[in-house]
């Protein structure tokens, strides 16, 4: 039993890294654009398919396909942002929060259904990054999971470096603190909305490309990670990248512990989906600002 | 001006009453489903468009009303009308509960909370197979024991007319003003003496009751319930209906629901492309005509012919 729990905990940690990548993307978008992106899970889904077709059609090796998927997800996000999100920055738009919810919800429905037509309802599984499994004593973990964890950590480090050590990251931070002050300092805020939405999309798409070989790809695969990412972002505190990373790991591990310890195995997997939703509801009720959230202000 | 309006309403009424005898059984059943969606869409509009409480959990209340009635009737032999009434009451109580715990949230937080609530409820309906039948579905006895759908059509029409009448009366009363005041600015509304807490909870309770009513009607019409009616995609359909019609007007959203449901069936030969088309239509409407297509059309018409303005204002 103890071995089983340890394996479950390590699997949870791997999934937690993936969750953290998705949630960090959602956080970047939230802190700059001040909207909750309901289409984030669908960009994650598209990232998975981008990687799949980069491997199958273009013959790109699986690891390179992750980068291709990130680039294409970034491009997709920038197009979406320019086409649908510009009213968020216009002073004449009424109730911007409501607009952001509705329009991203609409985008998620559109992407999910167009994916259903283009890619079909059947699950697709891209080839492994590294075949085989890591075996140490009684402990087994596929190399795919090891690679996913390593690549996820790399993405998170790159994100933190970008946000804190580059001038573009500084500018993003400035825009997130005050659009007006940033504009006074000569920062073209439009460009950084594009950058933030694209960056968030690239992270989601990269996560989708990473999970492909573990879980298969399907058009509805974004639904659950999307709500899980919301739970993580709110638990970590909206707007805090470090909080999202911590909360992602926490939710990943506690979710797989929940599956391992749930008394009725026939239901444990369906109720595992409800687990993060319950966490989300409890956190929203008890501490809506999460671990590291900035003050709980109404959205503009 | 009054006599043409009267004639137009009478013609519409006569058409609605004669409708089941003019179409075949297939389109009759489509129109019953359209009525079902119209009740849901109108109550969602009441909650979101008027009271400004962003909820994506409305279909959860439809499924709650449906399953409450269905389970009471199949397991305890409760008469169907009582079961439907129980569904409405359960939805009102749970709805006020959700409204109450949602008090500290607004905007996207509330939307997330209601999505989570809705998914948890759906997962419970899927997982507790001994009680609900899970994804396989729950068989529910029909309301009328005849082979024709005509009685369902008239019942649905009565329910829709009564619900819409009640909601229109509500939004044009003082309470309706309170709802809109809360939507525009909660602090200002509270400062002006609106009891914000009471009316936010009330908005949820009322809207959820209508959802429960629609759910009960659906359950005993279709005869088999699956957890899918509470899914996010169903919610998306209702959002599309309300927004394309016009989410700030009850009548516009009802027309949106009726037209969209009929359009979905009429475009059946396009298969899966239909949802993409509606998704795209939803996006374009949100982006370029946020108040919906009907208010836009009304505005144009009223500008072209000022005498019509009074009709549309009413």
Describe the strand arrangement of the main beta sheet of chain B, using strand numbers: 1-2
Give the CA-based shape of chain B: globular
The strands making up the biggest β-sheet of chain A line up spatially as: 1-2
CATH architecture of chain A: Orthogonal Bundle
Shape of chain A: globular
The assembly state of the depicted protein chains is heterodimer
Instruction: Give the fraction of residues assigned to helices of chain A.
Output: over 70%
Radius of gyration of chain B: 20 Å
Helix content of chain B: over 70%
How much strand content do the residues of chain A show? under 5%
In percent terms, what proportion of residues of chain B is strand?
under 5%
Gyration radius of chain A, rounded: 19 Å
Query: Largest interface, with Cβ-Cβ < 8 Å?
Result: A-B, 44 and 39 residues
Total of helices of chain B: 15
The low-confidence runs of chain B, each spanning 5 or more residues with pLDDT under 50, are: none
In total, how many domains does the architecture of chain A comprise? 1
Overall SS class of chain A: mainly alpha
Q: Which structural class do you get from the secondary structure elements of chain B? A: mainly alpha
How confident is the prediction overall: mean pLDDT of chain A?
86
| Distance N to C terminus of chain A | 50 Å
For the record, the count of structural domains of chain B works out to 1
Q: Describe it for me?
A:
- Chain A is mainly α and 300 residues long.
- Chain A is built from 11 helices and 2 strands; from the N terminus they run ααααββααααααα.
- Chain A has one domain: ABC transporter involved in vitamin B12 uptake, BtuC (Orthogonal Bundle), CATH 1.10.3470.
- Chain B has 314 residues and is mainly alpha-helical.
- Chain B is 77% helix and 1% strand.
- Chain B has a two-stranded antiparallel ribbon.
- In chain B, 49% of the residues are buried.
- Chains A and B meet through helix 4, helix 9 and helix 11 of A and helix 5, helix 11 and helix 13 of B.
């Amino acid at each position: 039993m103890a071995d089983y729990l340890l394996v479950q905990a390590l699997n949870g940690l791997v999934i937690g890294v993936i969750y953290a990548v998705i949630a960090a993307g959602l956080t970047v978008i939230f802190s700059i654009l001040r909207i909750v992106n309901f289409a984030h899970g669908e960009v994650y889904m598209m990232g998975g398919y981008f990687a799949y077709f980069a491997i199958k059609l273009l013959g790109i090796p699986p690891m390179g396909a992750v980068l291709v998927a990130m680039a294409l997800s970034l491009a997709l996000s920038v197009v979406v942002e320019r086409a649908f999100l510009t009213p968020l920055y216009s002073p004449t738009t009424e109730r911007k929060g409501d607009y952001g919810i509705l329009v991203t919800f609409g985008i998620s429905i559109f992407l999910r259904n167009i994916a259903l037509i283009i890619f079909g309802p059947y699950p697709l599984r891209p080839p492994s990054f590294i075949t085989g499994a890591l075996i140490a004593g009684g402990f087994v973990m596929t190399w795919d999971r090891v690679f996913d964890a390593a690549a996820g950590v790399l993405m998170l480090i790159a994100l933190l470096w970008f946000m804190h050590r580059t001038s573009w990251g500084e500018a993003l931070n400035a825009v997130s603190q005050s659009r007006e002050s940033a504009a006074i300092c000569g920062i073209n805020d439009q460009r950084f909305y594009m950058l933030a939405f694209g960056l968030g999309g690239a992270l989601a798409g990269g996560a989708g490309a990473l999970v492909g070989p573990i879980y298969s790809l399907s058009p509805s695969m974004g639904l659950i990670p999307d709500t899980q990412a919301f739970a993580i972002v709110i638990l970590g505190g909206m707007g805090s990248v470090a909080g999202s990373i911590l909360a992602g790991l926490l939710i990943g591990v506690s979710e797989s512990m929940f599956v391992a310890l749930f008394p009725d195995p026939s239901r444990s997997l369906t109720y595992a989906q409800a687990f993060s939703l319950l966490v989300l509801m409890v956190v929203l009720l008890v501490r809506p600002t999460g671990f590291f959230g900035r003050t709980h202000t109404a959205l503009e | 001006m009054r006599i043409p309006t009267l004639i137009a309403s009478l013609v519409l009424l006569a058409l609605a009453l004669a409708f089941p005898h003019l179409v075949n059984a297939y389109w009759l059943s489509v129109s019953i489903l359209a009525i079902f969606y119209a009740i849901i869409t109108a109550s969602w509009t009441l909650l979101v468009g008027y009271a400004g409480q962003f909820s994506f959990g409305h279909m959860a209340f439809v499924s709650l009303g449906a399953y409450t009635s269905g389970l009471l009737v199949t397991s305890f032999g409760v008469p169907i009308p009582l079961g439907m009434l129980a569904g409405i009451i359960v939805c009102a109580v749970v709805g006020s509960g959700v409204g109450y715990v949602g008090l500290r949230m607004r905007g996207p937080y509330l939307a997330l909370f209601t999505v989570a609530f809705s998914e948890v409820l759906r997962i419970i309906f899927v997982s507790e197979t001994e009680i609900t039948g899970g994804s396989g579905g729950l068989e529910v006895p029909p309301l009328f024991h005849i082979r024709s759908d005509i009685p369902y059509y008239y019942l649905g029409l009565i329910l829709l007319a009564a619900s819409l009448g009640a909601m229109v009366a509500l939004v044009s009363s003082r309470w309706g003003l309170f709802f809109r005041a809360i939507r525009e600015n909660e602090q200002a509304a509270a400062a002006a003496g609106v009891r914000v807490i009471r009316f936010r909870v009330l908005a949820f309770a009322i809207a959820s009751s209508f959802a429960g009513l629609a759910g009960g009607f659906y359950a005993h019409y279709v005869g088999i319930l699956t957890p899918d009616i509470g899914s996010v995609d169903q919610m998306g359909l209702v959002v599309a209906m309300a927004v394309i019609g016009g989410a700030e007007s009850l009548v516009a959203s009802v027309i949106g629901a009726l037209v969209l449901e009929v359009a979905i069936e009429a475009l059946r030969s396009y298969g899966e492309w239909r949802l993409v088309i509606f998704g795209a239509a939803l996006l374009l409407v949100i982006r370029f005509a946020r108040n919906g297509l009907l208010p836009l059309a009304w505005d144009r018409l009223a500008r072209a012919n000022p005498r019509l303005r009074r009709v549309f204002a009413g």
